[in-house]
Design goal:
It is an enzyme of class 3 (hydrolase). Its EC number is 3.1.-.-. It comes from Mycobacterium marinum. The chain has 63 residues and is mostly helical. It has one domain. It is 54% helix and 0% strand. The chain is flat.
Length: 63
């Protein structure tokens, strides 16, 4: 099973959303899940609200 970023975000934020409960049930029974690299990257970067994202610098230098 492949789980996308939005579902992990709901789950990790302890949301009461149906999707969060759905994933929690699968984690509880140790269901094998695939987490694509891009999803891991997005989770490590973190989530934010639109207003907080607007405050981030947009001229970052990639090293």
């Amino acid at each position: 099973m492949i789980v996308d970023t939005s579902l992990w975000t709901e789950f990790l934020s302890a949301s009461m959303a149906l999707a969060s409960h759905w994933l929690a049930a699968r984690v509880a029974v140790n269901l094998t899940m695939v987490v694509p690299g891009v999803v891991v990257m997005e989770l490590l970067i973190g989530t934010t609200t639109g207003s907080k994202a607007a405050l981030r610098p947009t001229n970052r230098t990639l090293v």
